């Protein structure tokens, strides 16, 4: 019996979904996408069917090897352990710590504060300022950290999990009109990464659920 | 030359600091604490000296093996890789995925939304409702996930990184007066864990910077 193709529950614009799409592309995993529209029908992530799959009512969730995993970094770590090539974590534990620190800085320190459900709570007139504050505060720290960790990419010269977090977060920053001038290192690494195929095929503007007017 | 003792920058009440204190206790790492008071002097994490150590201006940060690591889960993963006994991640990749999913659910999905700096932004009259919403929404998901992962602890019968996240988050829930009645599994596991020595010596009520009136 052939193993079932992994299924990614994804939303084109979700930065956390994009992280996982990059990982799958880099590792050459063939997968199917089931789009979950976070704004349509009051949010398809709240459907009973999806809640059974992911009680967090969030994307991404990955059905793979007979299990369902939620939380993008947990998914990427699982892919890394079960499909180790090419690696997304360096071999040296100290460098791995840098990769995970940067990943968590973005995944726990920035993204949760500017995601859709929080911005709804904050109220329409405050959303932009709120999101900008979360992102600039995190990017101020990140720019400083990258001074000592970065090579061509976030940590040295190998693409790592940290880079999978960086690019989608920069896209969010642009969407929220954050002035990126103070973040020369972040911007430079982002640009370098966006030239790689795995970052392009996984891009929000090229997903099956990307609205026609946003396609590129 | 003797290796320098690890130094943990910690605040007694910080749930993220507590996670790391439990890991250090379980692994029997002898360390020194430098308390960073998040409320005194307008927040000691904002001092120039501390910012140099941790640009995120957050605790915990761990100085160890010649490096400084921020972000609690990155610290715990580093400890796991360099001091593997007793292990805090199971051997089976699928179970490791469950541990990381639960850890991230708390560390990225709950804690960041109810931490001190966010609650300050939300304003005093909204703080309690805001924190309660973040915690109950996360705990609703967690209680459901634990139905399929839990044994004696969050994932099976071995203490894992997920448990290091659970106990401090339940303490936060209690501080924000969340009704824990709907969370029978969470409450039961929390109680079981609190009986373990590593969770007791690391408890906020027993830290060098615990105010006298909160000591136990």
UniProtKB/TrEMBL annotation, chains A, B:
<dbReference type="InterPro" id="IPR004046">
    <property type="entry name" value="GST_C"/>
</dbReference>
<dbReference type="GO" id="GO:0004364">
    <property type="term" value="F:glutathione transferase activity"/>
</dbReference>
<dbReference type="GO" id="GO:0006749">
    <property type="term" value="P:glutathione metabolic process"/>
</dbReference>
<keyword id="KW-0585">Phenylalanine catabolism</keyword>
<dbReference type="InterPro" id="IPR040079">
    <property type="entry name" value="Glutathione_S-Trfase"/>
</dbReference>
<dbReference type="Pfam" id="PF14497">
    <property type="entry name" value="GST_C_3"/>
</dbReference>
<dbReference type="Pfam" id="PF13409">
    <property type="entry name" value="GST_N_2"/>
</dbReference>
<comment type="pathway">
    <text>Amino-acid degradation; L-phenylalanine degradation; acetoacetate and fumarate from L-phenylalanine: step 5/6.</text>
</comment>
<comment type="similarity">
    <text>Belongs to the GST superfamily. Zeta family.</text>
</comment>
<feature type="domain" description="GST N-terminal">
    <location>
        <begin position="4"/>
        <end position="87"/>
    </location>
</feature>
<keyword id="KW-0413">Isomerase</keyword>
<dbReference type="GO" id="GO:0016034">
    <property type="term" value="F:maleylacetoacetate isomerase activity"/>
</dbReference>
<dbReference type="GO" id="GO:0005739">
    <property type="term" value="C:mitochondrion"/>
</dbReference>
<protein>
    <recommendedName>
        <fullName>Maleylacetoacetate isomerase</fullName>
        <ecNumber>2.5.1.18</ecNumber>
        <ecNumber>5.2.1.2</ecNumber>
    </recommendedName>
</protein>
<keyword id="KW-0511">Multifunctional enzyme</keyword>
<dbReference type="InterPro" id="IPR010987">
    <property type="entry name" value="Glutathione-S-Trfase_C-like"/>
</dbReference>
<dbReference type="InterPro" id="IPR034333">
    <property type="entry name" value="GST_Zeta_N"/>
</dbReference>
<dbReference type="GO" id="GO:0006559">
    <property type="term" value="P:L-phenylalanine catabolic process"/>
</dbReference>
<keyword id="KW-0808">Transferase</keyword>
<dbReference type="InterPro" id="IPR005955">
    <property type="entry name" value="GST_Zeta"/>
</dbReference>
<dbReference type="InterPro" id="IPR034330">
    <property type="entry name" value="GST_Zeta_C"/>
</dbReference>
<dbReference type="InterPro" id="IPR036282">
    <property type="entry name" value="Glutathione-S-Trfase_C_sf"/>
</dbReference>
<keyword id="KW-0828">Tyrosine catabolism</keyword>
<comment type="function">
    <text>Probable bifunctional enzyme showing minimal glutathione-conjugating activity with ethacrynic acid and 7-chloro-4-nitrobenz-2-oxa-1, 3-diazole and maleylacetoacetate isomerase activity. Also has low glutathione peroxidase activity with t-butyl and cumene hydroperoxides. Is able to catalyze the glutathione dependent oxygenation of dichloroacetic acid to glyoxylic acid.</text>
</comment>
<dbReference type="InterPro" id="IPR004045">
    <property type="entry name" value="Glutathione_S-Trfase_N"/>
</dbReference>
<dbReference type="GO" id="GO:0006572">
    <property type="term" value="P:L-tyrosine catabolic process"/>
</dbReference>
<dbReference type="InterPro" id="IPR036249">
    <property type="entry name" value="Thioredoxin-like_sf"/>
</dbReference>
<keyword id="KW-0963">Cytoplasm</keyword>
<feature type="domain" description="GST C-terminal">
    <location>
        <begin position="92"/>
        <end position="212"/>
    </location>
</feature>
